[in-house]
Amino acid sequence: MKGIVKTYYLGTPNELEILHGIDLDVYDGEFLSIVGASGSGKSTLMNILGALDRPTSGRFFLDHLPMEDVKDEGLSKIRNKKIGFVFQNFNLIPRSSALSNVALPMLYGGKSRSERNLRAKELLKLVGMEDRSHHRPNELSGGQKQRVAIARSMANDPAIILADEPTGALDTHTGRMVMDIFHRLHQEQGKTIILITHNNELALETQRTIKLLDGAIIENRMNGKNQLEGCYESF
Amino acid sequence: MNLFENIRLALEGLRANKMRALLTMLGIIIGIASVMAISTLGSAMTGSVSSTMDKIGGKNIMVSLTPKNYDTQSTLQPEDYITQEELDGFKETHADQIKAISLSTGMGSGQLNSGYIHKDVSITGASTDYSLVNNVNMVQGRFISNRDMESSRNVIIIDTTLRNKMVGINGDPIGMDVSVETKTTTETYTIIGVYEKLVIDNPLFNMGDDTRVECFIPITTAMSLNSGSAATPPGYENFTIMATADTDSASFAAITKDYFSKKMGALSDYTVDVQSMEAMVSEATTMLSTLSLGISVIAGISLLVGGIGVMNIMLVSVTERTKEIGIRKALGARNSAIRSQFIIEAIIICLIGGLIGVALGAGLGSLGSTLLKFPTTPPLVPMIIALCFSMAIGVFFGYYPANKAAKLNPIDALRYE
Ligand SMILES: Nc1ncnc2c1ncn2[C@@H]1O[C@H](COP(=O)(O)OP(=O)(O)O)[C@@H](O)[C@H]1O
Ligand SMILES: [Mg+2]
């Protein structure tokens, strides 16, 4: 993922402008955090980054591909193959087991049943949830649910993981555990991770932090030069 | 998104909401069950009608002289009777269409005595072809021959029950003499044959519970006895024509009526009445199909209501699962995948409803026809049609809710609480 330039305005029918022309590049393999007050437009921005939503105006390139040219079905495919979502409230399918939840993106990606189960088991193992694969979400704790959700986000081996306040509903300890998984995915698998968080300490662990205020970027800062691999530059 | 996965999903959803699913299916169940019940019953009835037709002669045309006006005292004049010559002429003219003509005349009841056995019987005078036309099944000896007719012999055909009584199941009564006492006469007859009584287990053709044994004597013998002191009637009042297999009995009945009506004088009190077995049966069949049509309309309304019920529950389900739909979309489900998930769910609901309906309807139909004493096997083709139809209802009424689900905006769906 290289060279995203985008400026956009999101207007609701009553012309409520949430994001006021945001320019942002995110680089391949980067671990970026987005901070900002509640309601500042972080989730809105992430939905656009994740091809769940389209900007009202402005342009968004993903892998040099202008997203305005991609049809809805194409966006589904991009979400399926290139992006993994992790949500604050987990968003697991309540009636399905952990294993089926993890396998779901692969189902939509057209993988065979045996392939899905094999990979889902591997992923659950990766997040330390292999012994809970047949539990339903309501039989799991918050931290466990979030680990399942992370495993699910990895299902189709996407390049980008978008995490919207993944630790927001977790206590410090389990939040730490989840954060460690993200670090591992970043370092071991070279995933591009964009993390929305309220926690400044967690934001400082990432390579770069962007601060939003009322739909505008007010800060774009490198964290700890020792973490830089020199593969990106800031605005 | 594969079919199997969708089916599994749908079943999971239904299991989570069993009562709701059952109530939703109710309209479909009732609709399909009533269609199945009526078609099971209908096919049992038509099946038994045609097998009865085979037994009692589906190609038979009954001809009789009936009074034009029942109020007045009408009497048959000698010239009204259909003579043997006229019959022979008719037979010759339409040799291609006529297989046999059977003549018979009732002599009323009487008592048959043989040794210490006294048995109430009814005596029928019959012609040679009677056994062919009316499917008389001879088990011993022979039926009335032309020679018996010509010489008006005192010979008699008894049935198996009477034989069993007289000489036992393995006994041979041929050649034995019996005496038959009627109101007017007492005659001695020689037994020349034994027949087996035809059992017609069809309530549509209830011939009355005549438990008396019917015995046959030559019609010529019967006529000369009947007339008593008066002169033997110059011909016949009624007879039955057996048409050949490839004759259209309805049109041949009309030809027959024309033929014999010509000979009836305009002044005669009587007219020729012709009825074909096929016409009678087709009348019954028409009645049955009118009945099925009526029930089908009711079933159709029930299916429509059922389908709307399915649509309603699917809309509820889409709303309830808005968030789930959002999640699926975020994970890369295409609109078409969401749509097929919900359509398949609707199909499964309808199909299960259809299966229950088919089982229930076939059960009720079989029970009903067993009670009515029609032999049955629930027909396969209507079953398959019913199941296909219920799936079609699922597609039709599931499409709108499924499309609504498919078109949800993923962001709005994810935000939905
Ligand atoms: N569908 C919507 N219609 C109207 N306003 C919305 C909609 N979605 C989000 N908003 C508004 O946009 C602003 C930013 O929301 P969001 O991006 O969720 O903020 P954050 O994630 O930073 O808390 C909020 O004020 C919210 O009320
Ligand atoms: Mg948010």
UniProtKB/TrEMBL annotation, chain B:
TM region(s), chain numbering: 21-45, 291-316, 337-360, 380-400
InterPro entries, A to Z: ABC3_permease_C, MacB_PCD, Macrolide_Exporter_MacB
The entry's keywords: Cell membrane, Membrane, Transmembrane, Transmembrane helix
Subcellular location, record wording: Cell membrane
ABC3 transporter permease C-terminal domain boundaries: 297-410
UniProt topology in membrane: Multi-pass membrane protein
Predominant location: membrane
PANTHER family (alphabetical): ABC TRANSPORTER PERMEASE YTRF, MEMBRANE COMPONENT OF TRANSPORTER-RELATED
Protein name as annotated: Uncharacterized protein
